[in-house]
Design brief:
The chain has a single domain (2-141), classed as Mannitol-specific EII, Chain A (3-Layer(aba) Sandwich), CATH 3.40.930. It has helices at 2-5, 12-25, 81-96, 98-106; strands at residues 29-31, 34-35, 38-40, 48-59, 67-76, 135-141. A hairpin with a 2-residue loop joins strand 1 (29-31) and strand 2 (34-35). With 143 residues, it is α/β, with parallel strands linked by helices. The two termini are 20 Å apart. The longest helix is centred in the middle third of the chain and has 16 residues, at 81-96. The protein is globular and about 35 Å long.
Length: 143
């Protein structure tokens, strides 16, 4: 996981367990095909967001009929809940804006995604993505 390689989380297994437990409790679909899994805790060193896209979709949650095409993964340190909540509150506006959502789905790299002003998620950085994600378009982190 690139979060670990960049020193943003301390333990991939522990972070994955936190994210998985959160998703098992309540899948984080915010619109058809879009999920926002997140993990918060002591294993997270720096607030981070990675976005991955899959045109085929990834089965997500307990319902095998639901698939995710866009995954926005947040890593939140305990000390930055307010910043995370601000980012999370901006995400639905970004995703529900059809122009921004179309741009997100078409992006191949972070530089290809420049949302209209309705979203406050910026700046985008290096590429990220693993597993069934075809392309990771970037991540945003706190300083």
């Amino acid at each position: 996981m690139r979060f670990a390689a960049a020193g943003r989380i301390q333990d991939v297994a522990a972070f994955s367990k936190v994210v998985g437990a959160r998703e098992m409790n309540c899948a984080t679909f915010i619109r058809a095909g879009v999920v926002v899994p997140h993990g918060r805790g002591g294993v997270v060193r720096r607030l981070s967001l990675a976005v991955g896209l899959s045109s085929a979709g990834i089965r997500w949650g307990g319902d095998s009929r639901r698939a995710a095409n866009a995954v926005s993964l947040f890593a939140i340190p305990l000390s930055q809940a307010a910043v995370y909540l601000a980012l999370l509150s901006a995400l639905p506006g970004l995703i529900h804006d059809e122009g921004n959502f179309a741009m997100l789905k078409a992006a191949r790299q972070a530089k290809h995604f420049r949302p209209r002003p309705c979203a406050s998620i910026a700046p985008w950085g290096a590429t990220a993505g693993t597993g069934q994600i075809e392309r990771g378009i970037g991540h945003v982190t706190s300083a």
